Structure formats: C-alpha cells, structure tokens
Amino acid sequence: MYFNDNNNFDPEIQSLINCSNTGSSSSNSMSNNNNNLNRAEFGTFSSNEKSKRRSSVEVTDDSPPQDNYGWVYIIFFLQGMATLLGWNVFITASEFFQYKLLGSRFEQNFRQYISVVYMLCNLLFRSVAILTQNNKSLYKRTSIALTVGILIFIGMLTISQLQEVRGDLFFGLTLALLVCESLLGAVINSDGSKYIQACISGQGLAGLGVSIAQFVFAISAQENSSSQDKEQALMLQSKLYFSASLVFMIIATGAFLALKYQPLYKYYHKKVLELDQVMETSSEEVNSPMEILPRRTNKLQTSWQLIAKFWPYMFTVCYSFIISLSLFPSVTAAIPSMSQDQTFLTKYFISIHFLLFNIGDYLGKTIPIIPQLYISHYVPLTLIGLLRTLFIPYFLFNNIFLGPNTPGVLKNVFGNDTAFLILVFVFGLTNGYLGSAPMMSAPSQVGLESKSTLSSLMALFLAIGLALGSLVSFGWLAAICNCNPF
C-alpha cells in the first residue's frame, strides 16, 4: 500500500515500488495521488541508521528526467492491465465454458474450479516471488512472464476453436493454462515502478475493460452469425474474445520490452541498485550472527502487535472478499434472466451482469478519493462488511440455472431481473469500497516504521479472503444442487 509522508521520506533514495495487489485490487483509490511512495525497503531504519547507510554509498542529487509523451506511464498502465487480464478473461467467458463443458462432470462447477485454482496458485506463486525477489532480475522475470502470457492466450485461442477438444480434456488444458496465468500475475505483481499509480489504474480497468469487450463481442457474434445458432455465435464470440486478449498481451509485452531504453526507467533502476548496495553493505557490518535473531524476533513481535491492534480492518477486508469470491462469479453467473422473451436484456443478461459488477467495483475503488465519502473508522467499515452477508441468501434463493441435467433444489424467492442487476451493481460497489478504504485507513494510523509491515499484513489478509472465498463457493454449489460439488 502507498501513503503520503513526504516530510519523512529521504529524497535521495527512491525505490521501485511494488505493484502488488490481488484479483480484485484494493489500492485503486490511491491511484490519483502522484506522491504516494513506498518506503518498505527503508521505512524501519532510524535517522542515525539511515545517515550511516547514506555515508556508505555515494548517491547523486540529480533530478529524474522527464517522461516525454508519458511513455513510461503508458507502459506501466498496460502492465497493470496485463496483471489481471487473464483472470478477468477466464471468469467472464462463462457462457462459452458452459457450452464447451456441456455433459461433462465440470458442467456445473467449472466456475468454482477456476476461482480456486487461480486464487490458491496465485497466492502460492506470489509468496515465492516475493521471497525470491531480486531487483536485478525483475525486468528479466517480468519480460519472461509477459511472454508466457502471450503463449497462454495462443493456447487458449487454439483449443477454444477445436471442436473435438471438449469436456474433461478441454477443462484440463484450461486449468493448466490458468495455473500458468496465476504465475504470470504473481511475477508481475512482485515487480514495480515509481509509476505505481499507472500500474494500479491499469489493474482497476482490467476487469471493466474485459467485461465491456466481452459484451461487445457477444453482440457482434450474434449479429454476424450466418444463422441464429447459439453454438456458432459462441464460437465466433470466443474467437474474437481470445484474439483481442492475445493482441493486447503482445502490445503490453512489446511496450514493456521497450521500457529499459527509457531514460526515466534507467534513472530509477540505477537508484534501486544503489539502494541494494547500501543494504548489502549494511548486512556485512553486522558484527555477530547472533544480532540477527533479535531483529527477526522484534519484527515478528511487531507483526503480532499490529494484528492485535488492527484486526478489525484485516477482518473486514478478508471477510468482504470471502463473500465476494464465494458468490461472484460462481453463483451470480448462473442466474439467467427471468423473462422468456428474446429481448436484448435476456440475450445478454450474463454479460450485462459482469459489466455492472465491474462498473460498481471500479467506482467503489475510486470513491474513497473523495474526502466526504471516505470512511476511515473500522466500526462503519466492519458494519458494511457484515451487512454484505445479506447477499448470500439473496443470490442463493434466486433464479439459478446450473444446467438441464442439474436442477437446483433451492426455491426461487427473489427472482426479478431489475432487482438482480441493481444489487449486482451494489455488490460490486461495496466490494470495491471495502477493498480500498480499509487498506488506506489502517496504515495511515501508524508511524513510518510500521507502515510497510502493516500494509503487507493487510495485503496478506486480502489474499487469504480471496482464496477462502473461492473454496466457500463449492459449499454454495452443494447447497444449491444438494449434490457433491466436486
């Protein structure tokens, strides 16, 4: 997380900033503040320690070069979008997956498997990427990850158009590509830049952009199909959908490869290497290995103290994303229109539902920028999070359709198209707000020396919420069909 504290920030050393957040990114609300800087690498040093480290390495006092034409900003904006592009593409292509898996054992639970596989693998890969992060290899690792992203969409485009690849085989290949996609997101998220605002903005727009594209392609495929056959329309839609994603990944990768030639990037990359040299030098100055133990112990104690003090914020973020991922898209995307008429709304009901959720999510992430609408106290934030529990019975007792061979056993109590779409928007709005406001509020209440640790803890609980939510979605499926959800 990134916060203003410019009076305490040492202007002589500026680090490349961690562009880290999960599937439903929580820091978009801070993306418009160009002074938000991460001090994770040196925020825990005292003034004397920082002076000592500055004396060991000569750091020039030159000003950064200009970002001519905003190329660096654009490059990191594209990188941010690439981070969450794959996840949004896989979950939004719900109707296509249902068609490809018709008659297989994954026909009803493919949404749950997609969520669980991606979130658990992303959490695992993210942890490994952070533990093994080396500033000298970040550019290379990110370039390789983006290139793998291109191969993923080539693979997805290929298998999606092969009529003989269906059912279990298709889903097995899809999950394999999804695991690679989670690795891509984890590696890119462990990279960073001074232009964190551009990266976060790109993450926030990824879901909205994908849902808009899917909506447009769904209409185009239906109108340009030689017949009204739904199968032909879905195949054309998927071809346009995955082709557009592939083209975007090629553009994002090419732009990132050109980053190393930008003077602004060279400037900040040099600063990071200087900071690494400072840290390596200070490590060599440790007189005895026994001195390391108290530092590690103190860091662990600090973490537990922060958890004990700020657990309401952590609970709110975690619980909010448990609710979100347990219902969206695994349950909400299985609710078709109540109308039997072939109207525009009924044809594209699922696509409209994705679009409204992502519009609400993006707005929710940006609302805390407005001071009058920014809630910082944990009591109202926790209350809003707990009130989101009401979405569970609403969506479960709705017009759920899992497939012709799996009728739902829960009664349709709340089925109404207008109410459903309005509440999906509210669901996205509260998801975005609770993914931003607590992440901003908690670290703003501690000193500079604890901001980095608390921000990392908040991000950890957010990731745990995403993973647990995807697992809980299997429980909702079991309740809906009164069957084995696996």
UniProtKB/TrEMBL annotation:
It is found in: Membrane. Its main location: membrane. It is a multi-pass membrane protein. GO terms for molecular function: nicotinamide riboside transmembrane transporter activity; nucleobase transmembrane transporter activity. SUPFAM superfamilies: MFS general substrate transporter (SSF103473). One of its GO terms (cellular component) is plasma membrane. InterPro entries: Eqnu_transpt, MFS_trans_sf. Keywords: Membrane, Transmembrane, Transmembrane helix, Transport. It comes from the Eukaryota. Coiled coil: none annotated. The chain crosses the membrane at residues 71-93, 113-132, 144-163, 169-188, 200-220, 240-261, 310-332, 344-363, 375-397, 417-436, 457-479. Belongs to the SLC29A/ENT transporter (TC 2.A.57) family. PANTHER family: EQUILIBRATIVE NUCLEOSIDE TRANSPORTER (PTHR10332), EQUILIBRATIVE NUCLEOSIDE TRANSPORTER 1, ISOFORM A (PTHR10332:SF88). This is Nucleoside transporter. It comes from Conidiobolus coronatus (strain ATCC 28846 / CBS 209.66 / NRRL 28638).
